[in-house]
Design a protein that fits this description.
The complex is a heterodimer of chains A (about 675) and B (about 525). By secondary structure, chain A is α+β, with helices and mostly antiparallel strands. Chain A contains 16 helices and 35 strands. The relative contact order of chain B is 0.12. The chains are: A alpha+beta (about 675), B alpha+beta (about 525). The interface between A and B is large, with 63 and 91 residues.
Chain lengths: ~675, ~525
């Protein structure tokens, strides 16, 4: 049995297939040892003979955010020991004289130089002697390092010296991360930074994943444990333990895959994902027909750049708990400060500063009875009074609350613009898939301002990440930097075949049946950045045409006569995941009457309007509901403004047609 | 209070939208440019202007560009009768530019069926060579005519088509025409990306509404500045600092300012009377640069996410003496005014400001961009190359915080060229890139350390250094010590003999020679505890 487990801050979600249907189990997380919650979840489900555990973990992310990783020794070409701290020499905040120093995971006493040099062309100009390597090993040993990152200049053009240094340091018995394997690409700082992150996470992730595997095997001797990568593909836990930098965004990546799957079943190919939680919001864009979610190689996690290909998940520092205030110029601001769990929003009873959740509550958008299953008591009078005290120049607390909602939705809008418009995609051609605790509450309004016509609220919006992990494919990426002129495009078959053979062998060794997808990174000669286009094996020159067209669309110009450079050949090996397709139930036209709980006043467009409140669990496929309405469920609530119409589809998703604003 | 018909929420929405246009133009420029100075170091800036040429949004790029770009737009509007599909190009410091390597493009965005531009989008990028006497166009010139090709505001694109006549004229006058052409193409592309986004903005808001929001946005910036200025102590604060020399004679050059705060009116006046007369060497700043430095300092007094718009300058008046080093007149050379004098102007403004609000002002940062330009022929390809790079120094200590080491400060924020990009592109080998230990000024809070960058030439080349803070060190504040001065040394490949270079010089070096640059540390803040 395959079980997907996503560890979150509060809950650990477990999702599995039983009798052809997705089942979900929620247990409380155990932050001190996350694997305990995993075992608790497995116990609740009851494991049969062939456990295949797939895990989405926040251990990597949290280690980065909390700075609790290993003591890393950084080994590089002598003369360049400080480059890991100097970074790119620019400041992050242009106009802030009091910005803190940027993060460097390697303190000075742990930076070591090797007397060696490789040229840009890959020629070894100077090799370290045996004595020099021995001296290095002794220095690193004496430093008390728990992990080592090796990143020598130009190692990606010729890894020989890096391999020798690796072999020498191997005698220390601590994890060694090597740059030409982690990220074989130019730009020494980004490559080194990525390698250091790997080393920083290695001891902790290794012990965590191996511990998890051990526990799973105790339950069931042939158990297999896999882990979700930040790129959206599954790899064996053993490999995840070796290259933990690949799993820093493991949990959110599950959300991306889950949203894509759910959307595809429901018939939506182009989606913008919107996962709004308590303190932050993750957004991403996926064109499922064009291979799914976008990937980026310019991520920054916990202040540290990571150059690996990761799902392009953009995080905005605002969520339900974000605090609202007026600045000196009189502009209303929301976040990045958050009320967190302590003191929490005003309406939870102890906070005193207005948050987005308070605004939603004051406007009638939270259901006091059903909030978190009735597990949290909400305080209406306290909220009303304190919101009034915070309202600044605005006339009423309601206007203030409505303002907070609009400002926070603007930030969400901006985040979505970053991943859509700024990358050349028109949001009007996409469907907004909203999940997470607060996503469904703000989705319709956000869709309206971005002119997105349709919103999809998946079934199980709280467990969507786990669903994604369960259904994800096993994916591994291979690449070769070639730096060839565009004319060579007809002669790439052999290199691709070579890549494909070694990838196929790796997959076969794990009992996986992989399919290869080929693509090319192209650019105009002497540009610094590439565009990735599919490699057309039948007529390779079509890839060139695709490149010119994409360049024109993204950057405002293209020149067919200009020489093109083939930078990287990329091979993505995919072994399909669970061959599950959700069962589509028959729609029976209905109006959701049996799910109607009550009616209540909710604030829309400047005034309170009588709105119907529904229980989502009681809705059935075919039910259609007109706004104004609120559809509540255990971990979330969907707000349907006037002019919007929701229908339950055959998969229990809410599909919302976003109409224009209705003003009376 | 805000205007009756614009609420704070709509304003925030609009501001985000305009700002992202400028950012998006920058991304397009970086991803398509050819020269390492633009694609790797991001030595460019983008901004959006309203129909009257007032800046309404700036990308978070290079402060020295940003504050002076409005003059480019105004110069282009004045000189050219624009039609839809046109793009203007210019670099003349005496007609909207700052120094010749910074080439600016201005695209007027027309509303459908209107004959007047409703917006302007603009980008400026530093080109690694624009001709002139020295490869890299940053050498010790005596007249602007020696600094490279001067481009008044002219159309490089007419009705959507590149004007080949103008382009050929420019390209014939530079050392690396193919790279220049590629970079100019990128700038044109970035303008079009901006144009497209402005169209979408107008479509969303409607032109009338957008105009109302622009007025409010400018008023909002003004309110933020006035709120700050009202909190300042009343009075006059006077400061001076020095440039080591102008690269021609050894005589130090003075920059002086008198700041007058009027908290009652919420106003600030800066008078640079007493600054040196314009000089023979290239450290002359045109007035746009002086204004740019003032704009930067005002913007830094505001909250971190405040928008940078023309409204910031409304409560501010600037007085400069025409023909002085902070308001140069033609034909004075100006290459260094943009990069060196601009930093000294900030140093002087901060020194004066520190008397008014000591707890809010850092000690002096490196105060020089340590500009290095190298030109020659790459033996690997037989093609000409020109290289430009600035090296960061130490940041001045802050009350409560040490200065950051090896980081660009104030008027610049370019990145370094990765060594692995540099050695691909140029016939150099990097020997060392490291912190310069102990160069930050001591104090209760330490100034940041400068950097050491040392390279070996793999071809004969012309090397030009344009740097300052060799004699007059970055000052400490409140008893903190000064930062260490910068220096540069050439080691001859054949003999191994070392020669210390002056701050501003241009010389021929041979294959095998090594050049080491050490940048100044930042000043300390507060007395060091015993």
């Amino acid at each position: 049995m395959r079980v997907a487990i996503d560890t979150g801050g509060t809950f650990t979600d477990c999702v599995y297939l039983a009798d052809g249907r997705l089942q979900a189990v929620k247990v409380f997380s155990t932050p001190s040892d996350p694997s305990r919650a995993v075992m608790n979840g497995l116990a609740r489900i009851g494991v049969d003979v062939s456990l295949e555990l797939r895990h989405g973990t926040t251990v990597g992310t949290n280690t980065m955010l909390e700075r609790t990783g290993a003591r890393v020794a950084f080994v590089t070409t002598a003369g360049f020991e400080d480059t890991i701290a100097i970074g790119r020499q620019a400041r992050a905040s242009l106009y802030d004289w009091f910005a803190p120093a940027p993060v460097c995971l390697v303190p000075r006493e742990l930076r070591f130089g090797v007397p060696e040099r490789v040229s840009a062309e890959g020629e070894i100009l100077r090799s370290p002697t045996g004595e020099e390597l021995t001296a290095l090993v002794e220095q690193v040993r004496a430093s008390g390092a728990e992990s080592v990152a090796i990143s020598l200049l130009f190692s990606f053009t010729n890894p020989e010296t890096e391999c020798r240094v690796e072999a020498a340091l191997g005698s220390l018995g601590i994890p060694v991360s090597v740059s030409h394997r982690i990220l074989p690409e130019f730009r020494e700082f980004e490559r080194a930074s990525t390698t250091v992150v790997n080393a920083y996470l290695a001891p902790r992730m290794e012990s965590y994943l191996l511990q998890l595997e051990k526990r799973a095997k105790e339950q069931q001797s042939r158990a297999r444990v896999d882990v979700m990568q930040s790129s959206g593909g599954i790899i064996a836990a053993r490999l995840g333990a070796q290259e933990p930098v690949r799993t820093v965004l493991s949990g959110p990546a599950g959300g991306v895959i889950g949203a894509c799957r759910v959307a595809r079943w429901a018939g939506f190919e182009r989606i913008i994902g919107f996962d709004m939680g308590g303190t932050s919001t993750d957004v991403f864009l996926a064109d499922i027909a064009a291979g799914g979610a976008q990937l980026t190689r310019e991520s920054v996690v916990g202040g540290v750049p990571i150059g690996l290909s990761m799902l392009d998940i953009h995080t905005a520092g605002a969520g339900g708990g974000s605090i609202a205030c007026f600045d000196a110029g009189g502009m209303l601001r929301v976040g990045p400060e958050s009320a967190g769990a302590e003191p929490g929003p005003i309406c939870f009873g102890s906070g005193a500063r207005a948050t987005v959740t308070d605004a939603d509550f004051l406007l009638g958008r939270l259901d006091a009875e059903s909030f978190l299953g009735g597990g949290v008591q909400l305080h209406p009078e306290r909220t009303e009074q304190l919101m009034c005290e915070c309202k600044g120049p605005l006339a009423t607390a309601e206007e203030f609350a409505a303002g907070i909602v609009r400002v926070v939705e603007t930030q969400m809008e901006k985040a979505i613009r970053v991943i859509s418009v700024e990358r050349g995609h028109d949001p009007r051609a996409f469907t907004l898939v909203a999940f997470g605790g607060c996503g469904p509450l703000h989705a319709c309004s956000l869709a309206r301002s971005l002119r997105i016509p349709t919103v999809l609220i998946p079934a199980l919006p709280g467990a969507l990440s786990a669903v994604g992990i369960l259904l994800a494919d096993t994916v591994r990426d291979y690449s070769r930097t070639v730096m060839l002129p565009g004319d060579a495009i007809e002669n790439l078959q052999a290199i691709f075949a070579e890549l494909e053979q070694s990838a196929g062998e790796e997959f076969a060794a794990e009992g996986l049946d992989g399919t290869a997808h080929r693509s090319l990174d192209l650019r105009y000669r002497r540009q610094g950045y590439e565009l990735n286009v599919e490699y057309d094996a039948q007529s390779p020159h079509r890839s060139l045409e695709a490149f010119h067209a994409l360049h024109r669309r993204r950057y405002g110009f293209a020149q067919e006569s200009r020489p093109v450079e083939i930078v990287n050949l990329r091979l993505r090996m995919i072994a399909a995941g669970e061959s599950y397709a959700a069962e589509k139930r028959t729609l029976v036209p209905g109006n959701g009457r049996t799910a109607l709980v009550t009616t209540r006043k909710i604030y829309f467009h400047g005034k309170f309007q009588e709105s119907r409140i529904y229980r989502r669990e009681a809705l059935v496929p075919g039910d259609a509901i007109e706004g104004p309405a609120l559809i509540t469920e255990y971990t979330s609530a969907t707000l349907l403004p006037p002019g919007c119409r929701a229908q339950v589809d055959g998969f229990d998703n809410l599909v919302i047609a976003v109409g224009g604003e209705v003003k009376e | 209070m805000t205007r009756a018909d614009v609420d704070p929420v709509e304003l925030a929405v609009f501001q985000s939208a305009v700002h992202s246009i400028a950012e998006e133009m920058g991304a397009a420029l970086r991803r398509t440019a050819l020269s390492p100075n633009i694609k790797e170091r991001r030595d460019y800036s983008c901004a959006v202007f309203d129909s009257r040429g007032r800046v309404i949004a700036m990308g978070d790029h290079m402060p020295v560009h940003l504050g002076s770009m409005p003059m480019s737009v105004l110069a282009a509007i004045e000189a050219i009768e624009f039609a839809p599909g046109d793009i203007a190009v210019l670099n003349d410091p005496y007609a909207g530019g700052t120094h010749l390597p910074d080439i600016t493009m201005v695209l007027p965005v027309y509303q459908v069926k209107r004959d007047r531009a409703a917006f302007y989008v603009c980008n400026r990028a530093h080109h690694a060579d624009v001709g002139g006497a020295h490869a890299g166009s940053m050498g010790p010139a005596r007249e602007i005519f020696q600094e490279g090709i001067r481009i008044p505001p002219v159309r490089i694109v007419r009705a959507g088509e590149i004007d080949r006549d103008v382009l050929s004229l420019i390209l014939l006058n530079v050392r690396t025409p193919r790279e220049r052409e590629g970079d100019l193409d990128s700038q044109i592309g970035a303008c079009r990306v901006g144009e497209q986004r402005v169209h979408e903005l107008v479509e969303k808001y409607g032109f009338m509404r957008a105009e109302a929001l622009i007025e409010e946005l400018l008023d909002y910036s003004q309110r933020l500045v006035r709120a700050q200025l009202r909190e300042m102590p009343e009075g006059e604060f006077v400061a001076e600092d020095w440039l080591d020399d102008d690269g021609v004679s050894d005589e130090p050059r003075r920059i002086a300012v008198r700041l007058r705060f009027d908290p009652g009116a919420g106003e600030l006046h800066a008078d640079f009377a007493g600054s040196s007369a314009q000089v023979e060497g290239s450290v002359n700043a045109v007035r746009a640069i002086t204004l740019s430095a003032c704009f930067y300092v005002l913007r830094c007094l505001l909250p971190r996410d405040a928008p940078a718009t023309a409204g910031i300058l409304r409560p501010f008046t600037l007085t400069t003496v025409p023909g002085s080093i902070v308001d140069a007149r033609p034909p004075a050379p100006v290459a260094g005014g943009n990069v060196e004098t601009s930093q000294r102007i900030v140093d002087v403004l901060l020194r004066a400001l520190a008397q008014a609000v000591p707890e809010r002002v850092p000690a002096a940062s490196a105060g020089t961009m340590s500009n290095l330009t190298i030109g020659g022929t790459d033996p690997r390809t037989g093609e000409a190359f020109t290289y430009y790079e600035t090296t960061a120094g130490g940041m001045g200590a802050r009350p409560g915080l040490d200065g950051i080491s090896g980081v660009h400060t104030h008027m610049t924020n370019s990145l370094n060229t990765p060594i692995e990009a540099l050695e691909y592109a140029y016939p150099f080998r990097m020997i060392r890139y490291a912190y310069r230990d102990g160069s930050g000024g001591a104090g209760k809070f330490r100034g940041g350390d400068g950097l050491i960058r040392e390279l070996e030439l793999l071809a004969d080349a012309q090397v030009t250094l344009l740097a300052d803070r060799r004699r007059f060190r970055p000052y400490g504040l409140e008893g903190g010590e000064d930062g260490a001065p910068g220096q540069a040394v050439v080691t001859q490949g054949e003999t191994g003999s070392e020669k210390k270079l002056p701050g501003k010089t241009s010389l021929r070096l041979a294959k095998g020679d090594r050049l080491g640059i050490e940048t100044p540390g930042g000043g300390g803040w507060g007395k060091r505890a015993r």
